[in-house]
Amino acid sequence: MSYPQLDLSLDDLLATTRSVRKRLDLSRPVPRDLLTECIELAIQAPNGSNQQFWHWLVIDDERTRADVAAIYRTGMAAQVESPGWMSGIDFTGPDQQRIAGSVEYLASVLHEVPAIVIPVIEGRVEGGDLFTQASLWGSILPAAWNFMLALRSRGLGSAWTTVHLHRAAEMAECLGIPPTSTTQAGLFPVAYTLGSDFKRARRMPAEDITHWNHWRKGS
Ligand SMILES: Cc1cc2nc3c(=O)[nH]c(=O)nc-3n(C[C@H](O)[C@H](O)[C@H](O)COP(=O)(O)O)c2cc1C
């Protein structure tokens, strides 16, 4: 079965696939075969040597969603305690305040989101050299983004999240994910969106961050 798609150009799809939190429709169920259709598209993504070491854990059972949401919230608390690379970010500006409010909202309703998806890749990066780390992440993150695009094109939305990874071991225990031989790549709440009119994000101009031929030279 192929689910209907929005009338969006490819450029619009790429430019308007936002992190959706406050506009997730918590009241409308998401059919399993629709999720499977999106995962089928996700796994068209490139991956190292086509080994397809990926797995997709879909949580749509009410009790398990509640357990997962509780772990997500403890991960968020840990993030606040220990911001890591985010410690340099100024969170006082209006944009960051808006994002923070939206992030808080998602955490508070996560148990109500119809489906939660955790992409998992076989392997671990600990102790691995740069090649190993890049190969592992590069073999799951493009598929995760494909998944978000496939959702968006069908009127659904998600938000790329990572805070639960502060509690990855607890999540693995909760869901039966092999804890020492796999890596969770993130957590994606999935729901239909309330409306589908998402806008382009404000980003710095490409020319400011593009380097031609040499890091320092202008041209
Ligand atoms: C690696 C990564 C980690 C993120 N972690 C979280 C998260 O834990 N919780 C959350 O609500 N949003 C998270 N986000 C979403 C970002 O806040 C969002 O992408 C950013 O604010 C830009 O908004 P946009 O995606 O709508 O363009 C994450 C995004 C990325 C790419």
Written description of the protein model:
The structure is a single chain. This protein has helices at 10-16, 32-42, 62-81, 94-109, 130-137, 141-153, 168-175, 206-209, and strands spanning 54-59, 115-122, 156-157, 182-184, 188-192. It is α+β, with helices and mostly antiparallel strands. It has a single domain (22-196), classed as 3-Layer(aba) Sandwich (NADH Oxidase), CATH 3.40.109.10. Strands 1, 2, 3, 4 and 5 form a five-stranded antiparallel beta sheet that branches. It starts with 9 loop residues before the first helix and ends in a 10-residue tail after the last helix. It binds flavin mononucleotide. Flavin mononucleotide binds next to helix 4.
TL;DR?
This is Nitroreductase family protein. Pfam families: Nitroreductase. The chain has a single domain (22-196), classed as NADH Oxidase (3-Layer(aba) Sandwich).
What CATH architecture label applies? 3-Layer(aba) Sandwich
Ends distance? 50 Å
Classify the helix fraction into a percent range: 25-40%
What's the rounded overall pLDDT mean? Answer: 96
CATH topology-level name: NADH Oxidase
Bound ligand species: flavin mononucleotide
CATH superfamily: NADH Oxidase
Number of helices: 8
**Major pleated sheet:** 5 strands, antiparallel
Number of strands: 5
| Cα shape | globular
Structural class: alpha+beta
Q: Which ranges are low-confidence, i.e. pLDDT below 50, for 5 or more consecutive residues?
A: none
The amount of beta strand, in percent, is 5-15%
In sequence order, what are the helices and strands, one letter per element?
HHEHHEHHEHEEH
What is the radius of gyration? 18 Å
CATH class: Alpha Beta
Question: How many structural units, i.e. domains?
Answer: 1
- Quaternary structure annotation: single chain
Family: Belongs to the nitroreductase family.
InterPro entries: Nitroreductase, Nitroreductase-like
Protein name: Nitroreductase family protein
Organism: Parahaliea maris
